[in-house]
């Protein structure tokens, strides 16, 4: 028996890295019977043979997992949000942040194509950066000239398993290519009618980048809050999580309750109004979603 980590899944095969070697493995039938699917990122026990092939016999307990993209045991998610084309959107950024916070994964924000905005637009994005820094998020401003900036970004990847998140067209493939030039991933051009890029990646694979592993995937393709309960939503906003115990009522949802510390913080400008408005919008979305059976 040997132990390793699945670094690629393709056509029913799981490629398991153990030390310097990679083994092409299949999953045992027992997984199918239990409706367990091995995921990229899983730590596994497997039976190897001399042809660098084998069978996965056991999957270790996961720290976390995502459905789309299907990957497990992620340390951080880098959210790419472009300054322009597509335009910077705090609503979309907050949607990604909530989904990532709900999984207990550390988010980092990269605002890309920052060299394409000037004047008032640039100043506005600087204000947003300050807001997110105050909440406790790390925010990097990244120009579209990736190769020049890669040395400064490398430390984010060391000893971590990272997944990228962000709408299409924000520069995920371009950034991966710059981080690991041997990849030569296709970059999808922006479709002007939809305002989004064309997906170019097909399978999930962990690739080595600056001493860590990065998931080469199309990023999140599902942005609904299907797995988040109403009572847990405010915990996905760090600035609200901090104030929770100061509300008069235990289990306060920061909606219509009186003497709410969060609503008070919004009034005095301690919590950005747009963050609270997004919270209310997501709150209604979760409240009115159809039950799943």
TrEMBL record:
Zn(2+) binds at residues 247, 252, 254, 260. Pfam families: RsgA_GTPase, RsgA_N. It is an enzyme of class 3 (hydrolase). PROSITE patterns: ENGC_GTPASE, G_CP. InterPro entries: G_CP_dom (IPR030378), NA-bd_OB-fold (IPR012340), P-loop_NTPase (IPR027417), Ribosome_biogen_GTPase_RsgA (IPR004881), RsgA_GTPase_dom (IPR010914), RsgA_N (IPR031944). It is found in: Cytoplasm. Its EC number is 3.6.1.-. GO terms for molecular function: GTP binding; GTPase activity; metal ion binding; rRNA binding. GO terms for cellular component: cytoplasm. Residues 63-223 form the CP-type G domain. GTP binds at residues 112-115, 166-174. Keywords: Cytoplasm, GTP-binding, Hydrolase, Metal-binding, Nucleotide-binding, Ribosome biogenesis, RNA-binding, rRNA-binding, Zinc. Binds 1 zinc ion per subunit. GO terms for biological process: ribosomal small subunit biogenesis. Residues 72-221 form the EngC GTPase domain. Its cofactor is Zn(2+). Belongs to the TRAFAC class YlqF/YawG GTPase family. RsgA subfamily. PANTHER family: SMALL RIBOSOMAL SUBUNIT BIOGENESIS GTPASE RSGA, SMALL RIBOSOMAL SUBUNIT BIOGENESIS GTPASE RSGA 1, MITOCHONDRIAL-RELATED. One of several proteins that assist in the late maturation steps of the functional core of the 30S ribosomal subunit. Helps release RbfA from mature subunits. May play a role in the assembly of ribosomal proteins into the subunit. Circularly permuted GTPase that catalyzes slow GTP hydrolysis, GTPase activity is stimulated by the 30S ribosomal subunit. Monomer. Associates with 30S ribosomal subunit, binds 16S rRNA. This is Small ribosomal subunit biogenesis GTPase RsgA. It comes from Virgibacillus halodenitrificans (Bacillus halodenitrificans).
């Amino acid at each position: 028996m040997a132990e390793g980590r699945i670094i690629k899944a393709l056509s029913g095969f799981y490629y398991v890295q153990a030390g310097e070697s990679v083994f092409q493995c299949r999953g045992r039938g027992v997984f199918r019977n239990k409706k367990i699917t091995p995921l990229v990122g899983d730590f596994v026990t497997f039976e190897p043979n001399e042809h660098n092939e084998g069978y996965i016999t056991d999957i270790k307990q996961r720290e976390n997992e995502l459905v789309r993209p299907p990957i497990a045991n992620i340390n951080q998610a880098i959210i790419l949000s472009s300054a322009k084309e597509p335009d910077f959107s705090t609503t979309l950024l907050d949607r990604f942040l909530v989904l990532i916070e709900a999984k207990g994964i550390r988010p980092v924000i990269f605002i890309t194509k920052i060299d394409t905005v000037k004047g008032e637009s640039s100043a506005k994005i600087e204000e947003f950066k300050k807001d997110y820094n105050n909440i406790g998020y790390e925010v990097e401003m990244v120009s579209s000239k990736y190769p020049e900036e890669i040395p400064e970004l490398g430390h984010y990847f060391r000893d971590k398993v990272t997944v990228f998140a962000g709408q299409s067209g924000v520069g995920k493939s371009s950034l991966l290519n710059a981080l690991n030039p041997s990849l030569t991933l296709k970059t999808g051009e922006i479709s002007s009618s939809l305002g989004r890029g064309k997906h170019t990646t097909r399978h999930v694979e962990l690739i080595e980048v600056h001493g860590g592993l990065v998931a080469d995937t199309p990023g999140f393709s599902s942005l609904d809050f299907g797995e988040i309960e109403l009572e847990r939503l405010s915990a996905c906003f760090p600035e609200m999580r901090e104030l929770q115990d100061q509300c008069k009522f235990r289990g306060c949802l920061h909606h219509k309750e009186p003497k709410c510390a969060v609503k008070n913080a919004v009034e005095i400008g301690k919590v950005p109004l747009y963050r609270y408005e997004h919270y209310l919008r997501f709150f209604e979305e979760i409240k009115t979603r159809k039950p799943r059976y």
